[in-house]
Amino acid sequence: MDVTLARPMVRGFYDKPTGAIQYVVTDPATKRCAIIDPILDFDERSGATATKSADAVLDFIGESGLELEWILDTHPHADHFSAAHYLKQKTGALIAIGDRIVDVQKLWKVIYNWPDFPADGSQWDRLFREGETFAIGSLPVKVLFSPGHTLASITYVVGDAAFVHDTLFMPDSGTARADFPGGSAARLWRSIQDILVLPDETRIFVGHDYQAGGREPLWESSVAAQKATNIHLVAAHSEAEFVALREARDRTLPMPRLILHALQVNMNGGRLPEPEANGRRYLKFPLDSL
């Protein structure tokens, strides 16, 4: 399957509260599409959940006459809830993630003291292996294993577009942190190198934008732009230099405000906890765990 020839249509939806971007990726020939990294709204102050962000994506798909084939996550997110399960219930589309999700599940089930949690990836319809190929309509897709930010991060290369989420940011923002449980700055460096060997014209779609310098949100760059101007890659010319830079920066960063809320949902395929006897759902929040 030649992943270099096709050019998908890409629509990004920026989520201001989290700085995250969810995507609709469409095959122009068949009008079949995938959603990448969908967001379930959550307000940690009130505990309220909502589906406004995910419903906006569904509205776009309906209004555009598209057919949803896939709901894809790049990794278990630490700063927002995944809407994968909600969207599957609404549409019947398949949900998928990389097969190393089981490593994240095994790590975090201990942190949450969740001994009965099924850490086998069975929460998803499909677990993609490194190098595996599949299709969105007639568009070829290749899966690259991209760990470093998490144990399970993957990149979807859809024709001439690569969805890298928390591996690379826009060039003026650098690269993702690598200090979460299971993270590795050295492995992140190697994952970035695997992405940068793609053709220079490959479009790079990032998963977050924090509006460096107060500019408007951006989420598309290219391999050529990343190699030439990414502030961390320009400053670090070797793995050792990058590891030193990344680890020094990570020591200055607070943990994401939703990491302990989100991981228990996202490592479960976007499923919220089951209601208890009083009909309410409860998150489990481990103290002193990070």
Structural account:
By secondary structure, the chain is of the alpha/beta class. The protein is 26% helix and 24% strand. The protein has helices spanning 52-63, 84-91, 101-111, 185-196, 223-229, 231-235, 239-250, 259-266; strands at residues 9-15, 20-26, 32-36, 39-43, 48-50, 67-72, 81-82, 94-98, 126-128, 133-136, 139-145, 154-158, 161-165, 203-206, 220-222. A 6-stranded mixed beta sheet has the order 1-2-3-6-8-9, with helices on one face. The protein has a 6-stranded mixed beta sheet with strand order 10-11-12-13-14-15. Strands 5-4-7 form a 3-stranded antiparallel beta sheet. Helix 4 (185-196) packs across helix 7 (239-250). The radius of gyration is 18 Å and the shape is globular.
Summary keywords:
six-stranded mixed sheet; 290 residues
Care to give the gist of this entry?
With 290 residues, the protein is an alpha/beta fold. Helices cover 26% and strands 24% of the residues. A hairpin with a 2-residue loop joins strand 10 (133-136) and strand 11.
